[in-house]
Amino acid sequence: MEFLRFCAVGTLGFLVDSGLTVIATRFGGLGPTAARLLAFAVAATLTWALNRRFTFRSSAGAASWLPYFGLTAFGAVINVGVYRLWVAAAGSTPEQLVVGVAFGSVVALGFNWTVSRYIVFRVEG
Questions:
Q1: Tens digit of pLDDT for each residue in 63-115?
Q2: In 3D, which of 118, 111, 104 has the Cα closest to residue 13?
Q3: What is the residue-wise DSSP string for 64-89?
Q4: Contact 72/112 with Cβ under 8 angstroms?
Q5: C-beta neighbour count of 111 within 10 angstroms
Q6: Which of 27, 79, 82, 116 has the fewest CB atoms within 10 Å, measured from its CB?
Q7: Phi, psi angle pair for 121, to nearest 5°
Q8: Stretch 31-46: mean pLDDT, rounded?
């Protein structure tokens, strides 16, 4: 169940990430990479809060945000790298931006699950 909750939170993060990416490129004047980095920061903060309370039911306080954000930033490098490769190959239409966000998110899922569960929120077992 914990992994399913993690995936549900990740899905919400994906919707925020991809939605803000499209909005920032279409209406905010940002390029695809700058828009994605901004959207990722917002989505990562949302997923930290939800994973802390909902997924892992952790008593970790606000101080856990920095380690979470720092460690998932490694996942973000993977995530954004896959995204950039996709956009370079497929283009930057709104649909392709969303597909690129999805591919990047899926590739980084395993890493983010591991660091969240065993390092940031320290779930044993």
A1: 999 999 998 889 889 888 999 999 999 999 999 999 998 899 888 888 899 99
A2: 104
A3: GHHHHHHHHHHHHHHHHHHHHHHHHH
A4: yes
A5: 17
A6: 27
A7: -105, 0
A8: 93
Report how far apart, in Å, the C-alpha atoms of 19 and of each of 26, 31, 77 are.
11, 14, 20
Q: In a 10 Å sphere around its CB, with 0-12 CB exposed, 13-18 middle and 19+ buried, how is residue 52 labelled?
A: buried
Q: State the number of CA atoms in the 13 A half-sphere of 28 facing the CB.
A: 16
Could you tell me if 74 and 121 are in contact, meaning their C-beta atoms sit under 8 angstroms apart? no
CA distance 101 to 33: 11
Output the six-digit token pair for 41: 């920061």
C-alpha span between 105 and 112 (Å, rounded): 10
Could you give the C-alpha distances from 42 to 2, 14, 17, 26, 60, in angstroms and in order? 23, 11, 7, 18, 20
Question: What Å distances lie between residue 83 and 16, 116, 124, 125, CA to CA?
Answer: 16, 22, 33, 33
